[in-house]
Structure formats: C-alpha cells, structure tokens
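Re-run requested by the PI after the first attempt was lost when the workstation crashed. Everything re-entered from the original request form. Ligand of interest: flavin mononucleotide.
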Amino acid sequence: MDVSGLRREYRGDNFDAVDNDPMALFGAWFGEAVQAAHAKSRDPNAMSLGTVDAQGRPSGRIVLLKGYDRQGFVFYTNYGSRKARDLEANPWASLTFWWDELDRQVRVEGRTERTDRAISEAYFASRPRESQLAAVASSQSRPLADRAALLAAVEAARKKYEGRDVPCPEEWGGYLLRPHAMEFWQGRSNRLHDRLAYRLDETGVWKADRLGP
Ligand SMILES: Cc1cc2nc3c(=O)[nH]c(=O)nc-3n(C[C@H](O)[C@H](O)[C@H](O)COP(=O)(O)O)c2cc1C
C-alpha cells in the first residue's frame, strides 16, 4: 500500500533559545508534554527503548518513564526479559520520546545499570495490587502455553499472597539510563525543523550543537 500521502506541516515556533543544560530543557519539555497529554489522556511518559543484543542486532519496544533527575532516566521491567538480556550483554541503550501534540522528539543515549534494590522495591510497593500480581505471574518475554496459563499463574499468586503484601519479585526491577547524548527536535514549517544535540565531553560538561534538519 502506498502511504506517501500521509504528510502534514509541523508548526512549532518556540525553539530559539539554546540552553546549556539538557536535563533542564528535558524538564521543561516533559512538563509541557504532560500538560498537552492531560487533555487527551495520552501517555507522555511512553518512550521507545532501543537495545542491542550480544550479536549486535538492535530491537525496540515502548516502556514507561517512571522518574528522571540529574543522574538519568528510570524505567521498570523484568530482569529475565529480552530487553534485560540485551542490557546485561550490552548496557548501552537509547530512549526516544515522540510528543505529537507538540511536534517534538527527544532522543537520549547512554549506559544503563540496574537501580538499587531498595528503589525497585519502593516503586513496586506503590503499584496497584493487580499490577503486582501480574508482575509475579509473568515470565516476561518467555513462551507461554496459552493465555489460560498466565491467568492461572495470577490466581496462584493471588492465593499465595492472600492477606499480605505482594513482595517485589527477584527478577523484577528498574534500570537507570545515564545519558551521554541527548537531542531535542522541534518540528517547524516547511521541513525547516530545529535540532539541538547535546554531548557530554570528557570533563563531564554538556556541549551543544545545532544540527541540520
Ligand atoms: C504504552 C506501553 C507501555 C509499556 N510499558 C512497559 C514498561 O514500563 N515496562 C515493561 O517492561 N514493558 C512495558 N511495555 C511492554 C513492552 O513494550 C514490551 O512488550 C515488553 O517489555 C517485552 O519486551 P522485550 O521482550 O523486548 O523485553 C509497554 C508497552 C506499551 C505499549
């Protein structure tokens, strides 16, 4: 099918200021994305996580950003999943956000590491009980006989933890991605988009370049 007619104009017009601090810029853009998404009940914290396996083959999937600060970006997953196996073999990963209400993309690249166990446990404890039971029951990314097997595992977990807290499974937890590079893309009219690319230099200082669109 030819889908070449799927095109539109991008209308952003407020990307003239160059900030020396990409995390501050990320914070400003994320805040605006949350506001814009609020009206449409979208997921402004959805991001595509790119990993590369031991053979050098890339793969991507959406995960949810659960926190960010000066250190980097945190998401949670299963440590036995395909993405986690990739990250154990090669900790370098990418995150890509696309906020279509704002015509903005943010790309992040860096090294990942597991979050401290205490952080994973605290976040797990804050999740709805049904999500906790699902995390206990699911061997993420590994084959299932059928859906009934998954539902049976949830019921077994429900019974096992009846009347007490669901503990954070050993194989479930967070990753922190420490950024080495960040790029901000603002769609503008006539395909003359703005791109601002930041890279950490050897001394740990962010350097910014404006790139051709
Ligand atoms: C909107 C959305 C949010 C998601 N959030 C997460 C998440 O935070 N953590 C996670 O492990 N998987 C999340 N997933 C599922 C992943 O995309 C993926 O299917 C799963 O993690 C297995 O990926 P893997 O086999 O590459 O490890 C989300 C999917 C979507 C569509």
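Saved to the shared folder this time. The longest strand covers residues 172-186.
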